[in-house]
Amino acid sequence: MYEIIETIVRSAGEIVRSAKHIDESVQEKTSHCDLVTKYDGMVQEYLRRELLTAFPEAGFYGEEEEVHDISGRSAYFIVDPIDGTMNFIRHARHSCISVGYMADGKMEYGAVYQPYTDEMFTAQRGKGAFLNGKPIRMNDVAMSESIAMFGSAIYYRETIPATAWLMQELLPLVLDFRRSGSAALDICYLAAGRADVFFEACLRPWDYAAAGLIAQEAGAVVTALDGTPLRYIDRCSVAVGSPSNYPELMEIVRRILTEPDMKGRIR
Ligand code: IPD
Ligand code: CA
Question: Mutate which of 203, 204, 235 to test ligand 1's pocket (most atoms within 8 Å of Cβ)?
Fold first, then answer.
């Protein structure tokens, strides 16, 4: 099954790579900074058709759907057709296709494909994480030796003060920060040892479902920012760290969450 999914995800990459006149199809979704192109829809429809033809019993939970209905399904795909849409619109060539497979409430498989660099990150629960078929492992480093990646959760303006505070607390402790514009790739970068800690105050399941499993299988600790398990429905913050730096991240978040005006600012 997982080889078939990987092949489908890889072939969807051609739609992204060969996209033309991207700016002509840009539309606003929830706000002026939340954008979508016709290619997001094309990739999603391609994935839906191919995945559900191969696995007709499965459900489909994709970012660009009007209604997200997986009720009554015990197994379904969680799909972000293009994660890093803003990068895609600006021709930054740092976006990915993300497909997770959840069964009986557990993430069983994840594939995150960067079509411009031809990098395929994959993981099957309990079987380790891979980049283009080769095993990858996270660096288990202390916060002082960590590169931090983060997402700004910019579609959820109420989270801005908490994000700013987290950045302010973390920046003096780490080697440096990175902000790439694709949460799925950020989390896979941790899995591959390219960075060491990640946070975002609010994400949706398609942004982290596949990458979260990949990071976990590479040795990362992956939870919501308050330390509870990820919720794969609706909105949820995400924290990813190594066994060594994750407790320090949790300590900072705990301090922030005790402030009265921080209530509800981290999902
Ligand atoms: C976004 C990216 C970004 C993150 C946002 C996500 P999209 O996904 O992952 O890095 O900060 O929160 O929504 O909109 O490009 O699919
Ligand atoms: Ca997306």
Answer: 203
